[in-house]
Amino acid sequence: MAQPQQPDNKNAAEPTSSVPVTESFDKETTLNKDNTLPQPASTKRKLAARDSSPDLNGTSIDRSSSPRAGRPSFSTEGGGSGFSSFVDVSESRVFTPSTSVPSLVDSVRPSGLSMTQRPGAAYDGQDRDNVGNGDEDENDALEEHAATAQAEEGSIIIDSDDVGTDDGYGSDTATNASTSLAESVRDYIYENGRRYHKFREGHYNFPNDDVEQQREDMKHAMVKMLCGQQLFFAPIGNRPQHILDIGTGTGIWAIEMGDLLPSANVLGVDLSPIQPDWVPPNVRFMVDDVESPWLHPRNHFDYVHSRHTVMGIKNWPRLMRRALEHIRPGGWFEMQEVHHFPISTNNTMGPDHPISQYWTLINQGLNNLGVKHFHAVANSGLSNMMRECGFVNVTERVLQIPIGTWPKNKVLKTVGLYWRTILLDGIQAIALGPLTRGCGWSPTEVEMFLIEVRKAYKDNSPLLHMPLHIIYGQKPLDYP
After folding, report:
1. Domain boundaries, position 222
2. Radius of gyration for the chain, computed over Cα atoms and rounded to the nearest angstrom
3. DSSP letter string over 189-217?
4. Among 265, 278, 334, 331, which Cα is nearest to 80's?
5. Confidence bin at 189 (pLDDT 50/70/90)
6. Euclidean distance between CA atoms 445 and 439, whole angstroms
7. Mind listing the pLDDT tens digit for each residue in 219-238?
8. I need a labelling partner for 387 at 20 to 30 A (CA). Which of 48, 49, 125, 152 fits?
9. Residues of the chain by 3-state class (helix, strand, coil), percent to 5
10. What CDD domains does the entry give (predicted)?
11. Is residue 60 part of a domain?
12. 337 by DSSP, 3-state: which?
């Protein structure tokens, strides 16, 4: 019998199934004369549909002021959700631009850099020739390859000229959440100036307002930059039929997967109906709690994906068992989780450092609120849970995310700049719930504490980084 093709991953375990592996193919993109990414025809159709769409009162929406102005209407009725309790927010929709961060896109692709397609990387389907500027293209490509290699090997080269304090980040004050569209069709709660989900109130202890959504989209762009534009690492093949995205948030990952794999049905599930209104026709979203019983048929999904949920899931082993039951034999479950406890490359950050104290208190507050797996991602904790639940061919890759601009590699320097921005922009959002709900602090006490934490994040001298753990496992072909 012919052996299945293996993924282009030197660390991946050999799958036992005959699941086809995503193949690498070379498709290159030429930048416009103004050094911007070319706009494919599909995006132009999305923009036209978005700009002409009516709001909930039948009037035209001016979306120029906010990239996340469009929001889905939703119903409390609908059958066959697949979960025990749900709100299906999917309608018949046309394409719209996925929620992107233009500044990040410009930073990822310098002038003249060709983009070569990788497994799991988004591609618009158009062939382009005459790419690049010779040596500059080659140098940029080598720089990008070196960035991912250094991040995975934990051998990030230091830029000795950029290890001091960066005072150019901006204001120390927190940004107020902007007013969202059509508030009357949502059921939210407001606490300490931030907006939280109402469905299964208190299950997720972080806000879902527009400011947080933009931060989550920036986080998505940063992770893609670190991972060489890959959306996934599990060898799921090129024709999966049913994909589930757990904790989909703004839906940006699900939307890009729908664009990448148009033959697949992509379902994104979250506690909040904050996804865009206009999405690919093969993508839909559902409001539900994935820690409730799943009502999907057994052996239904080809691939289940979860990212940035370690601070929200209360019972990881139970979730993994449910995923195993509802993934088809030979299918894959992948988690991409950051261990939110910074590591100092030069061992200069002790337990009394403001950033150490910050994350220790966040862990304590979440633990008091029932989220007890904050450190499970470290020391192969989630990998071991996956094996114990019955998954095979479990593989774990770890990429280091620098905090700040101390790396010498220009891609990692950009990653570090944006990761620090993401952490600073979310410093209040992450702290308010765990510290006020879990530790009994007042909002004023939280704000006073955050002053020193903000200052500490701007200091490059500890050479901080956080590990991103990419873990995936396969359901056995002979699973009963």
Report:
1. 41-55+78-126+135-474
2. 22
3. EEETTEEEE-TTTTSS-S--SHHHHHHHH
4. 265
5. low
6. 11
7. 999 999 999 999 999 999 98
8. 152
9. 30, 15, 55
10. AdoMet_MTases
11. no
12. strand
Burial class, 249, CB count within 10 angstroms (exposed 0-12 / middle 13-18 / buried 19+): buried
Q: What is the CATH number of the domain that holds 436?
A: 3.40.50.150
Number of other residues whose CB lies within 10 A of the CB of residue 451: 11
User: Distance between CA atoms of 273 and 258, rounded to whole angstroms?
Assistant: 18
Tokens, residue 401: 């995310």
Question: Are residues 233 and 210 in contact, defined by beta-carbon separation less than 8 angstroms?
Answer: no
Name the packing angle between helices 135-153 and 210-226 (round to 10°): 100
User: What does the alpha-carbon distance between residue 59 and residue 27 come to, in Å, rounded to a whole number?
Assistant: 41
Name the β-bridge partners of 327. Answer: 301
Q: Quick: pLDDT tens for 367-399.
A: 898 888 778 888 888 999 999 999 999 999 999
Residue by residue, DSSP assigns 53-69 as -B-TTSSBP--TT-TT-
What are the DSSP E strand ranges found in 215-282?
A: 242-246, 265-270
Contact 372, 314 (CB under 8 A): yes
Tokens of 362: 């966040």
Rounded CA separation 260/254 (Å): 10
In the chain, the number of structural domains is 1
**How far does the chain reach from its first CA to its final CA, in angstroms?**
24
Q: Among the listed ranges 52-66, 304-318, 454-468, which one has the minimum average pLDDT value?
A: 52-66
- Tokens 């999917």 sit at which residue? 90
Tokens (6 digits) for 468: 């991103």
DSSP state of 7: P
Does 51 map to a domain?
yes
What are the structure tokens assigned to 450, written together?
Answer: 């955050």
At 158, list the tokens.
Answer: 């230091």
DSSP 184: G
Helix (H) or strand (E) holding 402: strand 392-402
Is there a contact between 458 and 169 (Cβ–Cβ < 8 Å)? yes
- 31 found inside a domain: no
**How many separate helices (H) and strands (E) can be counted in the chain?**
11, 11
For the record, the structure tokens of 217 come out as 């989209």
Is residue 27, in this structure, part of any structural domain at all?
Answer: no
**Of 457, 469, 467, whose CA–CA distance to 356 is shortest?**
457
Contact, 96 vs 278, CB < 8 A?
yes
Distance separating alpha carbons of residues 434 and 318, to the nearest angstrom: 23
Instruction: Name the region of 382 (left: φ>0; alpha: ψ -120 to 50; beta: rest).
Output: alpha
